[in-house]
Amino acid sequence: MPSRRFWLICAALVVGGFWFPQAGFPQCDLSIPSGAVTLSNNAYSYCSVSLSAGATLIVAGAVTLNVTGDVDLEGTVDGSGFGGGSFYSISPGPGAGFSGSTTVYSVPVTEYIGGSGASHWGQGGTQLNASPASTYDSSTAPASMGSEGGNGWFSSAGFPQGGAGGALLVINAPTGGVTLNGTLDLDGMPGDSSTIYTMAGAGGGSGGALWVQALSIAGNGLLSAQGGDGGRGNSGVPSGGGGGGGGVVRLCASENFSYDGPVSIAGGAGGYEITVCSGFGCVTDTGPAGMDGIYSNCAPTPTVTPSATPSPTPNPTATVALTPTPTWTLSPTATPSASPTPGPSNNFFVSKNVMGPGSGSVSIFLASASPGHMGVRVYNSAGEFVKDLGEGSPPSGQVRSYFWDGRNTSGGNCASGIYVLYALRPERTDEAKILLLR
Known about the structure:
Elements: H1 4-13, E1 14-15, E2 18-19, E3 29-32, E4 36-46, E5 48-51, E6 56-67, E7 71-73, E8 76-78, E9 103-104, E10 107-108, E11 168-180, E12 183-185, E13 209-218, E14 222-224, E15 248-257, E16 263-264, E17 272-278, E18 281-286, E19 294-297, E20 348-350, E21 354-355, E22 362-366, E23 374-380, E24 385-392, E25 400-404, E26 417-424, E27 429-436
């Protein structure tokens, strides 16, 4: 007869009509027909896993599912914000973003600077106050959660909190199939936004990781390990938080791969900073965005069966027309230009982003892909106009150079701080932030 201890354990494990999963407990099937079940920071072994549409499996921390049979995920798998910086992680993670401050390269400035986004495979968006957070993990065998974004800056007690990173989910089903028809969300969380003027936004958390190894992989559900967006800043440039870097998604099937759903590993967007309007129109400035993560699959190579159709018998009388070898004409070597020549992806170039005593002017090179009006203007971090560096309507493709010596439109020296160069052309607008030190 079972002991009283046995029945007490049974009573503790039965939740809502089904077995609540326990790491290492000898159970075979995990079936979640409705409601929500949480798996946290452990490896779990099952004969099969079934998540019905409308049900939710919460993946908290780093979770591994070792399954001898099939895995059918029709509902929602939620691991968003359950990685680095969350309750389920002992640390913010190896790619944690740097917190905001009021110094740039140890030099005090008057601006409130946003927190940097966390990195994972993709690098987090980094504000001027810090070096980029380190990237990490493997693209072929991911084994890490996402990391936490850097806190924003606040002049009083308390800080806008950086977004937590996404969780890690590993599914091992070497003799079974995995069907991914639901939504699997391992995104990093957005950083907190500022609520008053003397506050800067926090960085977004980095996306988590998914690694699936199975006999077959099918489905068309959404798989997401995006970086979280940076928090909004309220004190101008550069108060927006940086976006978190994207995570890792890896799908490996040994026999059949037919999954064709969307996969999102995008970096998070930078937080809003300020909108500047001029004669060219209005431009909204944001904090730096995070870089994309990586998605890959190792689908089996199709086996090619030789055709049974016999080869045609050669006709000895047939005439074969030979195509003459084309003659290639090499263009003369171009004479190198004394200044950078903008191309399709390099049509805006700034010589440096820090101006100190004796360092000279900043040089800006600009070209437009289409004819029309273009120019460069300087604004301070509060969005106030400082100087027009020149305007005109050059022919398409012609390179124009501009210079800024740290002076305003009246010829006076600008104060130390952060300034924004806006390069405006018919087809787009670019910007660059300059730190001026006196």
